[in-house]
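The methods section describes the discrete structure representation at length, but only in general terms. What matters is that the chain and its backbone geometry are given together, residue for residue. For illustration, here is how one protein appears when written out as sequence plus structure tokens:
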Amino acid sequence: MLTQEQLEAYMSMDRWGVIYSKNGYAAGLFVLGAELYVAPRELSQFRLDMLDVQEDYWRCFNAHLARMAYQTEKEPDGKYVDLKKGENPFPWVRQAIGNPKPSEGYCNMIYSKAEHPDFPDPSKFSIHPWESSIFVQSQSDRRTKWDNRLSYHASSIPVASGSGSLHFELWRECVLTWAKRLRPNHGLAGLSIKMSEDTTDGPYIYPTLKKYTGLDAYVPLDFSMEAGTVYNRIKCVNWLTVLGDEIIEELGGLAVLKKALEPECTLYPYPGGVLIQAGEAPRLGDIEVPGSSELIEPYRKVAAITKPVRFMDYKNELFRVDKSLNAEDEARKWVSRFD
């Protein structure tokens, strides 16, 4: 059970969970994030499946969503539109897509306004706490760095509602629903740091990631670029970890996972994979707070059983760090933080 102090900390996380850069801009924000990664598959249906998942996100959270960016045959670089309150945009988005060639990827994003009560100057806050992004990678024999990589659906919401409730159970149900629809190769969800659009703010994020081991870095595009065509190696683990059937089989099967993880963790099998919940609620894992190590123990169990399928072959940065550090080495250290 969460203590009253923990509940109050989660309820106010949108205020104290802001990471500032030295010039007073918002470099990062604590949110609930989710990243689901999918290997190449038949593209025409894949695009529609991704849009189905994104439409489900819209159905759940449309009251908070303000804009959409989507591609069309006539505007492949993207079109931005303001969303009308309560009007479902996905029927006309599906019509606008047309029939892109397999060599053409597809991306779409719906998001809230970038605003925060502690930033009256909107130029200093560029983070969208409510967001759903889909990125369907191109498929081609050219094998450029953009082709045949992991596609993904990445999304975020605030940790708590304005009415005084936490979003943990809702987020688990959403992620499980989307995993059933997409049957991803792998994924993860839980407390995350969403970063500003200014990539120079990255070095301000890493000290917070090291302090709070339960926080994930919300970097779906960066991980997709690093993993490339390696489809069955996971980024790391979080409160919720999603594993597809191929990874489950490589780890010895569902029975092996249950034996290693239960009862501290709860497993939600579905056709195509399993969602693993590490403990009753997400944990920050503050290394400076006595006793936090025990609270994060379920995460360690999931990390231990999935270590053989963890992606470690970083050739570039997963996120920016101080210039005095080697970004690839720090990425490998960070994804191994529960070992």
